[in-house]
Amino acid sequence: MPTWLVTGGAGFIGGNFVLDAVARGVRVVNLDALTYAGNPDTLASLRDDPGHVFVHGDIGDRALVSRLLAGHSPDAVLNFAAESHVDRSIDGPAAFVQTNVVGTLALLESVREYWRSLPAEAADAFRFLHVSTDEVYGALGATGRFTEASPYAPNSPYAASKAASDHLVRAFHHTYGLPVLTTNCSNNYGPWQFPEKLIPLVIAKALAGEPLPVYGDGCQVRDWLFVSDHCAAIRAVLANGRVGETYNIGGDAERRNLDVVEAICALLDVRRPRVDGQPHSALIHFVVDRPGHDRRYAIDAGKLRGELGWMPEYTFERGLAETLDWYLAHQDWVGRVLDGSYRLERIGVAA
C-alpha cells in the first residue's frame, strides 16, 4: 500500500482527491490548515478509516512537516494547499503570498531534506507533485489555447502567487534535483466546492431566490473541468509523468460565464421550479466586473493525452447536472460551511 502526504486535503480538489485515493487503497496522511475553505465535513466518511490520517496544521510549519515525513515515510507528496479565490486575493493579497509562496517554499525545503535522507531506490521513486492553475498564463484572445510552453503572465494577485510557487518548484528540481511534477488545471467544479465559486454560488443564491450576479457582460470564457477528471489526471501524472515536466489539464469545455449561469437556471427550472412560476434566469443580475478580469482561458491538454493517455470522462452537461444534484442533496453541508465570515456576499471589488 503506497503512502502519500497530501497537503490541503480538506479543501475542494484536495478533498475529492483524498476520498478517491483512500478508496483505491492508498494510505493518505492529510495535512490541512482548515482555513474557511477547508472543511472536515468533506472527510466525514473517512473518520474511522485506517487508511486516512488527518493532521491539522500548516505547510509553513517546517517542524511539523518534517515530523510527518519522518514518521510516515511517504512515497510522494502532493501539494494542493493554496489560497485559491481570485476575488479574495484582490481584497487581501498578503494571505496568498504567505500560503502560496512562503508556505510552498517551506514545504519544498522540508521535502528536499526528507528526499535526500532516503535510500537510493526510494529516492529514485519519490515524487513531489505541485497542483497549480491555468491562471498563471494570463489571458487569451478569442482563439488559441494555453500549452505548457505558454509564457507566464499572471494578472491577479492569486495568479501571481501561484506563478511564484510554480517557479520555486521548478527551481528546486533544476537546482537540487528534487523529483517534481507540476500540473496546471482549468476551472474545476463538482461536489464539495466552497460556495464562493461561480457554480455553487449561483446554485445557493438561486435556491434562496436572490439575484444571480454575473460580472460585467458575462462573456468571459473558461474551460470547465469536472473534479473527478482532474483527480484522475493527477494520478496519471504521478504514476507516469516525466520528472521535471509540467502537464496542463483541461476539460475541453469552454463556456461563457453567462452560459454557465443560464445552464444552471435551466436545470433548476426542472428540479426546483420557483413558486412564482418565473424561470430562474429572471434572477440574473449583471454587476460591475472584477478588477483586471481575464477575458478567456482555455487549456490544450494534448501533452497529457499523448504521453499518458488521459481524457476527460465528463461532458460539461453531465458534470453540471451531477454537481447540481449533489448540492440539492447536501444543503445541510452548504449551511454548515456558510459561517459568519462569509454569507454569499460580493467580495473582490476594490480597484
From TrEMBL:
GO MF, one annotated term: dTDP-glucose 4,6-dehydratase activity
Cofactors: NAD(+)
E.C. no? 4.2.1.46
Signal peptide positions are none
Keyword line: Lyase, NAD
Q: Which reaction does it catalyse?
A: dTDP-alpha-D-glucose = dTDP-4-dehydro-6-deoxy-alpha-D-glucose + H2O
Q: List, alphabetically, the InterPro entries matched.
A: dTDP_Gluc_deHydtase, NAD(P)-bd_dom, NAD(P)-bd_dom_sf
NAD(P)-binding domain location is: 5-323
Identify its protein family. Belongs to the NAD(P)-dependent epimerase/dehydratase family. dTDP-glucose dehydratase subfamily.
- The protein depicted here goes by the name dTDP-glucose 4,6-dehydratase
Query: In which organism is this protein found?
Result: Luteimonas kalidii
